């Protein structure tokens, strides 16, 4: 059994937990993380979910992600999910590139740069069927043809944008 922490709207841990799969009570929130791993060619590792998965089975998704378990910080959850799902150990200190609020929680999105060899990854058999490198245009085509989870195209474009930017403001030259 897996438990998730409940948070206030201000992202303060309440000390209360719920069993994974249980509806988040009104007025409380949960934490989700997504990690996007990019190489120096500007490609993202994407994973194909196992066909037996209840949510989006057989479809392609971002590099890794999932709910933070009770006691997890966002960073620990991100590192754990990547290691569990694709066997890659993120050793550096990380922080989210952005946080997206959704009805019942917070989704921290991490951008990692690494030229790792995907043939050396150890995929979690219960969760991940395959991984591959993909460009922005390939992911957009996969969303259009229904083989990738139907994220908003602007979200996917923002992930690729954030890869090369330090925040979202254009720095004025002096």
What features would you describe in this structure?
The strands form 3 sheets. Strands 6-3-8-7 form a 4-stranded mixed β-sheet. The chain has 3 helices and 9 strands. The model has no long low-confidence stretch (mean pLDDT 94). The chain has a single domain, classed as Alpha-Beta Complex (Nucleoside Triphosphate Pyrophosphohydrolase). It has helices at residues 74-86, 136-144, 153-164, and strands at 3-7, 13-19, 30-38, 44-49, 60-61, 64-67, 98-102, 105-113, 128-134. The chain has 174 residues and is α+β, with helices and mostly antiparallel strands. This is Nudix hydrolase domain-containing protein. Pfam families: NUDIX. GO terms for molecular function: catalytic activity.
Low-confidence stretches: none
Percent helix: 10-25%
Q: What is the number of domains?
A: 1
Decide which structural class fits the backbone. alpha+beta
Mean pLDDT over the full residue set: 94
Radius of gyration: 16 Å
How much beta, percentage-wise?
25-35%
Estimate the global geometry from the Cα principal axes: globular
Pfam families: NUDIX
Protein name: Nudix hydrolase domain-containing protein
GO molecular function, one term: catalytic activity
Organism: Peptoanaerobacter stomatis
Main attributes of the structure:
Nudix hydrolase domain-containing protein, 9 strands, four-stranded mixed beta sheet, 3 helices, three-stranded antiparallel beta sheet, NUDIX_hydrolase-like_dom_sf, Nucleoside Triphosphate Pyrophosphohydrolase, alpha+beta, 20% helix, 174 residues
């Amino acid at each position: 059994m897996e438990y998730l922490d409940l948070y206030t709207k201000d992202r303060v841990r309440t000390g209360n937990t719920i069993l994974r799969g249980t509806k988040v009570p009104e007025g409380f929130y949960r934490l989700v993380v997504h990690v996007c791993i990019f190489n120096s060619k500007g490609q993202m590792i994407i994973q194909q979910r196992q066909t037996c998965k209840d949510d989006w089975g057989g479809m392609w998704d971002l590099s890794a992600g999932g709910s933070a378990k009770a006691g997890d910080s966002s960073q620990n959850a991100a590192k754990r999910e990547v290691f569990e799902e694709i066997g890659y150990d993120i050793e550096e200190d990380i922080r989210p590139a952005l946080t997206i609020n959704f009805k019942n929680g917070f989704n921290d999105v991490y951008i990692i740069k690494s030229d790792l060899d995907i043939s050396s990854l150890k995929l979690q058999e219960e969760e991940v069927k395959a991984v591959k490198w993909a460009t922005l245009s390939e992911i957009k085509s996969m969303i259009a043809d229904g083989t990738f989870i139907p994220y908003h195209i602007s979200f996917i474009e923002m992930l690729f944008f954030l890869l090369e930017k330090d925040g979202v403001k254009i720095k004025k030259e002096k």
